[in-house]
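Can't paste images in this forum, so I'm doing it all in text. The chain is below; anyone willing to post the predicted structure tokens underneath?
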Amino acid sequence: MLSDFEMRGGAAIAASRLAAGLLRAGHQVTRIVKSDAGRAQAWDTVCLADTLADKLARRAGVSFWLEASVTAKLQRALGKLGPDVVNIHNLHSASWPMAMAGVCGAHAPVIWSLHDMWSFTGRCAYSDACRKFLVGCDDACPTPSEYPALKPALIGAAWKQRRAVLAAAPAMVAVTDSHWLAKEAKLGLWRDHRVESISNGVPLDLYRMTQRAVARKSLGISTDGVVLLVAAQRLDNRHKGVALLVEAMQHVRHRPLTLMIQGHGDFSVEDSSISVLPLGFIADEARRVQIYNAADALVHPAINDNSPLVVLEAMACGTPVIAFPIGGVPELVRPGKTGWLAEAVSAAALAQAIDLAASDLAIGIDLRATCRSIVEAEYSDVAHAQAYINLMQSISKTTAHV
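Text version of the structure:
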């Protein structure tokens, strides 16, 4: 399994849960990463960290050196492992080149797990309203400085490199964790490839329903009002929509409200009837389970997203979700069953959805059981791993080593 990070970020966590599921099923897993977790894992880990020469080349902007260095290291690692299948996850956080996918294909059948749009755009993880990726990204990219940033003059060549790598590997299979992303991929550079949708999985033994009163007591929350949770790794990430939520809170009528804020960054509202409880970034999963269970609902105001783990984790804990109808989110957030969808991507529409949710919760509408039952039926980590095993068996005669 090839990815930028071993454990940091949603894509890496999804890859780790898949790796754990494959191990439980009796398969051997090696993770090849740019940045490891710094501690031993159940799987083997090979870290392709920058050498001193790589770091100097990166500072000097010598891209050809970096590409040659990392692809050579990957060649050596795959040559030693002799994998039966290579499963690629995110590459862009490591600034790794698309050419690495071609290297993988020279050693074994490749399944690329797409967590966003990067593999078929010139640089972006989400294209917003831009559709240039359909015909060719170029220096007119509207967001070149956003993560993952790339100089405008290089974007056209990056898109062409993606096209060339995928064209040279027609047997490469893409897996998306939402039907929305599968459709976008097939419209783009994956149009001539096999693209499968396999939903993310949640470890149901860890993410589970507990008593809300006990969870709130552990967090020091004492209120008769509605308690909402906002959770993002970085609250200042534009795509997470936190600024839009702050604006929406000016229009929310329901009071009192408590907002639990989980993530790096600041969050504040100027309203004394809205209590804000900053939790910071929570890495400990058991603590996150307490937080999910303490909330009446998760507010996920992302304006661009695919199949967010935070939504699935909340639902597994019986916590319904308030969100925008964007990306793959409507596949998870189902009105009347697992939450409430705003009618449009705007502060006013989000405020209306929050008010509707608060009113439903206040009169006793309880979606906890349906949230949990849907996750159990459709999003278990066991089913997620088995779907990948079935796919691997369909493209390779042996799956003794992944």
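The longest helix spans residues 63-81. Residues 212-378 form a domain with the Rossmann fold fold (CATH 3.40.50.2000).
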